[in-house]
Amino acid sequence: MPEKSINAYFRIGLKLLASIGCTELLIMTIFRFIRIETWMPPLLIDLTDTLILCVMASFLILYWVVNPMKILEEREKAKEAITSLARFPEENPSPVMRFSFDGTILYANLASLPLRNLWNSVIGQKVPAYIANSVMDVCGSGVSKEVEVECGDTIFSLIMACSKSTQDINVYGRDITERKLMEESLRSLTLRYKAILAAVPDIIMEVDNNKVYTWANKAGYEFFGDDIIGKEAALYFEGEQQIYIMVQPLFNGSDEVIYVESWQRRKDGGKRLLAWWCRVLKDSEGNVTGVLSTAKDITERKQAEEQIRNEKAFSEAMLDSLPGIFYLFDHTGRILRWNRTFETVSGYSAEDVAAMSPLDFFTGDDRTLIKESIGKVFETGATNVEGTFISKDGRRTPHYFFGVLFVLDGEPCCIGMGIDITQLKHLEAQLRHAQKMEAVGTLAGGIAHDFNNILNVIMGYGSMVFDSLETGSRSREQMNEVLIAADRATDLTKRLLVFSRKQVVEVMPININELILGLQKMLVRIIQESIDFNLDLAASPLIVMADAGQIEQVLINLASNARDAMQEGGRLTIGTKLEEMDDNYVAAYGYGMPGKYALITVADTGQGMDAETQKKIFEPFFTTKGIGEGTGLGLAISYGIIKQHGGYINVHSEPGQGTVFKIYMPLSEEAVSPDMKTEAAIPVEGGNETILLTEDDASIRTFLRILVESFGYNVITAVDGEDAITKFMENREQISLVLIDMIMPKKNGKEVSEAIRKVNSGIKILFMSGYTMDIINTNELTDAGFDFIQKPFHPRNLLIKMREVLDR
What share of the chain is helix, strand, coil (3-state, %, to 5)? Predict the structure, then answer.
């Protein structure tokens, strides 16, 4: 084979290899664009890639190998034919002719007959002008020329060359129909290839070794602009980037595909993030000629991914900030999601939780309840349940759990929370305790109210009988004992009213130190001789607003309890000092309001109390004493008194270590009032005015009528509120004073007073009641211009109060 033909085949081979490489890169780009791996298995992808590559290679071989080889072979055959035709023109299967310089046919073999028929020329005649012109061109230049002629379905290539011996033109023809068909097929394939590149939405760019763009597809031009070719790639970088460093291995000859992400400036100036897949380009000798890259705009995708990451981070932060435990588990019990609080409360690591089920955190009946509740979620869509959550270290915490049905990836799941209700349980216990105290207080108040009415009758008639008896007589002494017992009963009702918080506290500025010093002698008589009594009082006065009698009662109760706790003797110490509470103190001890307090401590060295007893000592009727030795009301009443004064009382004790009661009374800024001087006895005076007496209790009504009439007054009685209004309307001109109980059937005292005042706004009204919080308080009475006397009262005190109101 001639050397020239060998070089031609070598170049064809190099072109073929380069084309196959580019085809493979194009296939990979298309596969990435359509994300073929998401819907086709890897084996099928490889088979498809191989099939497409084989088809493309076949076309390329057909275009660059088969066709050129055939052309070369045909040319060689033509040359051999020319040589052969010189000897055997008639036997040559291809057309052989000789023309004169003007296009006249001088010779033609049999194979040229189709051409001559086409030209409608015979030997000796001229050929058509377009053939004759080509003949003259050859004669004028002396250079051979090839002319293609379509003869029906056959295409001939006519090679015209000057004869060496004469001025004639030798014409040698060959059938090139098949070659033309192949060329047309290759042209169609090339157009299809270009159409594919144009239709690919991804950007395809080619740079040379200097990183200058040398080629771009339609998408590339649309993104970068029509003037992209010839410009360096870095001109389109947005900001400082290390892209060149990342793709340098390709320019060094690496055959790998390198992925990079780069911010690029679009032709309109917009900033976009492109994902590049880059691969080296080499010539037929293996030298690097540049890099071919495909790119996809991933700006929106990256933004969406960033948003998803931010939302996920926000969701995780939100879930982790929840005060309760969050959980998500499927119908099999597999825990899919939980928050950090879940791990903190349970004590288990994330790996442990992932391998557990919700039932693993419960035992016994709670486990059964939780299992039923989980089933309820998947049946009804929602549930709630209480259970004791057991942590890894065995700690048990009551929780309230709720959950709802949630569909995740088509699977039903339960999503919900568990809230620690330890504090709630504690508050419920406190509420129950408060309700119990309130119920007992209401009962005590009701009893005291009714008992006051009874005492009023006893004290009233007793005083009248006492005054009628001779001085020094045995009966008078006996009646005096009755009145003393009635006074004691009155004190008892006052205590009950204090406990029920329905007794008016007559507060005034008092010095706690002076109050304790004044009570010292009584306290010494209360405790045993075997008990050492000590005072440890503050050097400066501690002024508080308080009812002195009630505070004395508290101290007496505490001293009595201390005596009972030290049967074998001991030491009782009562001390005072100034105590200041700040926010830190309140937070540390869990009670109080910031401010200054007078602290009273009552400490004994008795047998002490355990923690369980300390929780109950302020409950009514709770006592550690034997039957008949205590009522269980002493500390409860003391607690009520201190609370009513806006103070606090607590206890610190341990078995065998004694007990310390601490009482905090808010310190007052007011000065101590001068000592009250003993007032002279006020004489009881009667009158002749008409009194409207309204009392629903028949015994009290009878007693009061007898008492008031005995001092000269005229009395009109009413049995209830409506009767009082009726009697007043009938006798409004005569009535000077209305003496009325606050609680009565049909209409209460306030309603009666309002109805009477509408008729006579200046009428004088004196209220009486067993306690002052039945309907209205004393402040309301005072503001409305009413007067008040509390039951039980001494007959003398009632008469003095009536005269005071009438004379005002």
Answer: 50, 25, 30
Q: For tokens 């915490």, name the residue.
A: 397
CB atoms near residue 35 (< 10 Å): 9
As a whole number of angstroms, the distance between CA 634 and CA 638 comes to 6
Cβ atoms of 52 and 319 closer than 8 Å: no
Helix (H, G, I), strand (E, B) or coil at 382: strand
CA nearest to 171, candidates 160, 162, 157, 182: 160
DSSP 38-49: GTS-HHHHHHHH
Phi-psi category of residue 290: left, alpha or beta, with phi > 0 → left and psi -120 to 50 → alpha: left
CA neighbor of 175 nearest in space, from 111, 118, 97: 111
- What is the maximum alpha-carbon separation in the chain? 192
The burial class, CB within 10 Å (0-12 / 13-18 / 19+), for 292 is buried
Q: Compute φ and ψ for 456, nearest 5 degrees.
A: -60, -40
Cross-strand partners of 99: 105, 169
H helices, E strands: number in the chain: 24, 27
- Are 95 and 173 within 8 A, CB to CB? yes
The β-bridge partners of 418 are: 325, 401
Helix (H) or strand (E) holding 415: strand 411-420
Order the strands of the 648-653 sheet from edge to edge. Answer: 531-536, 570-581, 595-604, 659-666, 648-653
Rounded CA separation 657/650 (Å): 16
Taken as a whole, the chain contains a residue count of 808
Cα–Cα distance, 149 to 691 (Å, whole number): 151
Q: At what angle do helices 512-526 and 548-565 cross, to 10 degrees?
A: 40
Task: Average pLDDT across each block of 10 residues of the chain; the chain has 808 residues. List them in order.
Answer: 56 70 74 69 69 69 62 58 53 85 87 87 87 83 83 87 76 86 78 67 88 89 90 87 89 91 90 91 89 89 81 73 82 86 86 88 89 88 88 89 86 88 76 66 66 76 79 78 73 58 66 86 77 88 85 84 83 89 69 83 87 74 53 71 83 86 83 40 80 88 87 91 90 90 84 88 86 48 69 83 88
Rounded to an integer, what distance in angstroms lies between the CA atom of residue 14 and that of residue 20?
10
**Cα distance between residue 599 and residue 698, in whole Å:** 48
Q: Which pair of tokens denotes residue 488?
A: 């004691």
Contacts of residue 227, Cβ cutoff 8 Å, sequence gap at least 6: none
* Beta strand pairing call for 595-604 and 648-653: unpaired
